[in-house]
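Supplementary Methods, section 5.1.

A reviewer requested that the exact input to the structure prediction be made available. We therefore reproduce it here, unchanged from the version used in the analyses.
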Amino acid sequence: MCQQLFGQRDPVGEQILVNGTPFRIVGRIRRKDQDSNYSGPDNNKIFIPFAVMAKYFPRPDAPTGSLSQMLVMPRQEVIDNLTTVLTARTGRVEDIDWPLEHEIREILARRKAFNPDDRDAINVWDTSLQTMFFDRMISAMGGFFRVVGLVTLALGGIGVMNIMLIAVKDRTREIGVRKALGATTAAIQRQFFLEGFFLTMFSGGLGMAIGVALCTAVNTLAELPIRFAGMIITWPNALLALGALVLIGVVSSTLPARKAAKLPPTEALRYEM
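The structure derived from this sequence is encoded token-by-token as follows.
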């Protein structure tokens, strides 16, 4: 609205006419990104004091000073209480009597003489409920994708373990020759363990690097929708992925390494491909 009326000029101090009544601009609101609104985005509105509006622009279908809408912003402790109620109660959302909404109904009922328990007397749209449900949905999705990531890592570890078991079978004669030349069981086990472990860490690290690059590309190049902060990689999630990768690397490398170390030299030397 400001750019439409004044272009690139500073609007503060300028004068405009609204239905022939002059108004002087005393401030400019910051740009707001809204995914919901009541009667249009705030970026397209001009705000005036309520007393001035009641005097110069009264509603023709209601007494002077009447309201068509009223916005209420709860304190943070009220939102925390709503979250507790949401967790403890079951049933349909519209059937739950939220404390904040009930308090508003009681205050208005005393002033406007209606039954506060009559849910049809006034229409209340509690956007804090949508916010809480959205936050819970995002939290549930985060937990789901963590489980998917851990399962994917576990399947990758199984694949590495199968590859190393095949490698042990293919190198059975090599293992027998090394043992015949004096290689200890610990040395054989250490060799195959390190091979499997570094293979797991390399492939997992490569996948993590690709994931970080994709997240960075999406956050940088894509136009993110409202309420979506982007594909953010946090330290707790990164450490969880790294810890799971190390654990899977150890588990998937231990079995093939132990199998290779336990091969008797005589049987290994007699093994034919």
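Residues 128-270 form one domain. These observations are discussed further in the main text.
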